[in-house]
Every structure is written in structure tokens, then in C-alpha cells.
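Exam revision sheet. Question 4 asks you to relate a sequence to its structure. Input first:
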Amino acid sequence: MKVFVFHTPEQIPAEGTPDCAIAIDVLRATSTMATALSVGAEAVQVFSDLNELMKVSEAWEPQKRLRAGERGGSKVDGFDFGNSPLDCTEDAVAGRRLFISTTNGTRALTAIQSASTVLAGALINRQAVVQYLLAHKPETIWIVGSGWEGAYSLEDTVCAGAIIYQLQKALGVSMGDLAGNDEAIAATALFSEWQDQLLDLLKSATHGQRLLRLNCTEDLAYCSKLDILDTLPIQREPGVLVKNQSSIQAVVNVR
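Answer key, C-alpha cells:
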């Protein structure tokens, strides 16, 4: 098993696909997707383009769909939701499909959708991601951060490190054996240093600062929590993620 970390979709190699690709957008797309599926969303369908989202979702009955649109951290006018996981209550979401387009996270998922297996990871469902990897043992794993408009993001890197840190502990292997590139080692070191101060780290990050200016303090607090959901979004068909239903043996938390 070799794990590669790419800070943004733009860094993904032009050739080749991994056995498993994991998109991360801690603030906030993949946190929102995991939360929506955890409370009973039928599926989450991702779009890079807002117009395409509107066109595709028109085919669904209004009571069976929710449209989530975010640009620059703010809700897009005319959409049901922005990109806050706290909007995803059972009453609002259960039984509906969430059609979502965000500034960064949906771009990352679109970029990796040709991989054999596509997952959506965040701090809140880190353990569910690790359990899947331990159960299925893909040979090559790409963890792809969403970044911010093509630039590096601290929160996605620390989440990648959280996954690798837990995976290494469970496998009992050296970092040299597990890491496929230097970015994987650096991400793990970042998590090791900040694992007990994740909220402080998110508040210090550039996008965290942006969300604080938009009064999204509660979103940051929620997205900084580790292992609070056992829900794993997995791609069923290109661009459509559902809750993974595979039976997975519980793995002891070695954090």
C-alpha cells in the first residue's frame, strides 16, 4: 500500500489512475457530503458548474431534491443551501438527493472520478476512511486536497495527515514503507503536531479566516472534530456518491 498526497487537483499526475482516490475538502464540501449521507440523503451528486447542476436537477421532483451552491464561502442566490454541514439535518435532507457545487471540493471530486474507487474524506469521518482502506487494501491511494482556487490549504493537508497517521498505526509499518511522496510525510508530521489543536489550526488557516469573517464559527468547530461520523461517501457512478454499505469489521482506534 502506497499513499500519495496531492495538495490540489492541479497536482494530480496527467497519466495513470490509482486504485483508490480520496477527495478532501474539510472546509467544507466533503464534511457536508458525509453529514448529508449520515442523516439519510439518498445520494450526493457533485458538479463543477452551477448551470449544469441546475439542468440535471430539473429532472427531479422538487420534493426529492436539494440544491446546494457555494462560491467564495457564501451561498449562491436561489439555492436551498450553501455549503454548511450544519444545514444537513434529518428533517431537511432525509430521502432527498443533494445536488452540490462548491468553489473547490466538487472540483476535486470531478478530477478523480475516473479512479477505480472514489471516496470523500474529512476529519469528521477519518476513521471510516481508514477502516475502508484497511478492509480493501488498495495498492495505490491518492489523497487529493481541494485547496482554494488552485492554492494550498492547511486544513486539507492536516486531514490527509490524519488518515495516513491512523493507517500507519493500524498497519504497523514505517512511514517510508507507506508514503508514496514527500507530501504524505509532511502531512503526517503536520497532523502529529496539531492533532490536539485542530480547531486552532483551522481558525489559523486562510480559508478558516475567510469563514470566520462570514460568521461561520460553528461550522469550523464542527468540521474540526475527529471521528464523529461512521459514514463514508463512496462513488457509485461518476459524480454520484452514496453511503458505503459494505460490511467492515471495526478497527480499534489507535490514535
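Marking note for examiners. Confidence is low (pLDDT under 50) at residues 247-255.
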